[in-house]
Specification:
It is a single chain. The protein is about 40% helix and about 10% strand. By secondary structure, it is α/β, with parallel strands linked by helices. Strands 3-2-1-4-5-6-7 form a seven-stranded mixed beta sheet, sandwiched between helices. β4, α13 and β5 form a beta-alpha-beta unit.
């Protein structure tokens, strides 16, 4: 029996040919490859069912034909990537989120993420990772990330370099993720732990030497996607912005902000203009079901009935002055240092040891503020964050109707009160005890 089981696993691991799909991508006279067919072919990579040659061919053809920038292709491929990852107990995670009940403004207390595609070539400080930690003082943040692929210091690299005590980034798993939020507000989901199937394509991507569809799938493949309420995603090229927000919408996202700094920066720029694409949810006047219910999945029993809400895409631009802060040239936050130096800056920032007008601090504050705004937290007309909070809500609105300055006010409180540092320490303690 044991021998038969081994032989069965060997048989199941045999490569599957996707020649018909490759022919369609190479020559449309064979027919047009559908997004579903492309995603199904890509899914075989996670099971190690494609030969090296066909895997490389698929990635190359998707890039050369432009199909890697088709929002429906990207959305369906991201879904397959999430289906192949280590699965989180949805029911348990939802139960913990509801028990924590961190609701405020139009923020319903769900998980949030702040992430970039990378590849912008600027090697800036680890802004999104730092901002995600600060934001977790006020939101539940489930940050999805990995080690550096192109910069000097990726999210995981910086976290592992924290002194005197760094988190064990491999400790957060699909099994214990719900427990991470029972008492804490932050969890870093290390991509190799949650996406083991990606190891099959890693050497191929390295040998190809150019960016592939996987470079933009990462931020869309958060294993906790089903309970993510809000996110900010940075893209390294303006041309990806509209595609990215459309892919998010196709995958069911309702509160999202896609950003690209004018310098082709995958974060909100501290130097000037940032291009933005936002998913905003509004009530559907044609909906006839209940408009208020504890269960976030409430709807009518009629599958053909109008949806409870409508999600729309809004395009606009942001600048530092919209956040009430001055502009700083990228040269003041460049170059990104090695992970040890970035970790040192992170800890100084969280300990409130940087000057209040420090360019790196401002860079981090505007990106933190963006997530606080998109989550709906800044819609609250009252503020009871804790000791040191004046309670003076800044109700002034800017582009897209966002209270961007209020976002900065709340982000500053998180740093100056020590709440951000406490959130990081709770995450580190959890990884040590798991």
């Amino acid at each position: 029996m044991a021998r038969m089981a081994v032989e069965g696993r060997m048989a199941n691991s045999q490569p599957i040919s996707i020649t018909p799909l490759l022919q369609k991508l190479l020559d449309p006279s064979h027919g047009s490859a559908t997004p579903t067919e492309i995603a199904a072919g890509l899914a075989l990579i996670f099971e190690n069912r494609l030969s090296t040659a066909q895997c490389a061919s698929l990635l190359t053809l998707l890039q050369s034909t432009g199909r890697a920038a088709d929002p429906e292709v990207v959305a369906k491929c991201a879904t397959q990537m999430r289906n192949a990852c280590a699965q989180v107990d949805r029911q348990a995670l939802r139960a913990v989120i509801r028990k924590r009940s961190r609701k405020a403004g139009s923020y319903a207390g769900g998980l949030c993420d702040l992430v970039g595609t990378g590849g912008d070539g600027h090697s800036t400080f680890n802004v999104s990772t730092t901002a995600s930690i600060i934001a977790s003082s006020l939101l539940l943040v489930c940050k999805h990330g990995a080690k550096s692929a192109s910069s000097k210091s990726g999210a995981a690299d910086m976290l592992q370099a924290i002194e005197p005590e760094a988190p064990i980034i491999e400790a957060v798993t699909a099994k214990n993720l719900p427990r991470a939020f029972e008492n804490g507000n932050y969890a870093f989901m290390f991509s190799p732990i949650f996406h083991p199937g990606m190891r099959h394509v890693a050497p191929i991507r390295k040998d190809l030497g150019f960016r592939t569809i996987f470079n933009i799938l990462g931020p869309l493949a958060n294993p906790a996607d089903h309970v993510i309420e809000a996110r900010v995603c940075g893209v390294a090229h303006k041309g990806l912005g509209r595609m990215y927000v459309e892919a998010l919408k196709m995958n069911g996202a309702k509160k999202s902000l896609v950003v690209c700094g004018a310098e082709n920066l995958d974060e909100i720029s501290c130097a000037g203009k940032t291009f933005c694409w936002r998913l905003k949810e509004r009530e559907n006047p044609e909906f006839r079901g209940p408009m208020s219910q504890e269960d976030e999945d409430y709807t009518t029993s009629d599958d053909d009935a109008p949806p409870r809400t409508l999600v729309e895409i809004e395009e606009f631009q942001l600048e530092p002055e919209d956040f009430g802060l001055p502009a700083h040239p990228l040269s003041e936050v460049l170059p990104g240092q090695m992970s040890s130096e970035n970790a040192r800056i992170l800890m100084k920032l969280l300990k409130n040891e940087l000057p209040p007008d420090d360019p790196v601090l401002h860079f981090v504050l505007i990106n933190t503020a963006a997530l606080l705004v998109v989550s709906g937290l800044c819609d609250a007309n009252t503020s009871q964050m804790g000791e040191g909070d004046s309670g003076a809500v800044i109700t002034e609105t800017g582009p897209s109707g966002g209270r961007w300055k209020e976002g900065v006010r709340r982000a500053r409180w998180a740093v100056e009160s020590g709440a951000a540092m406490k959130s990081l320490e709770e995450y580190i303690d959890f990884t040590k005890s798991s």
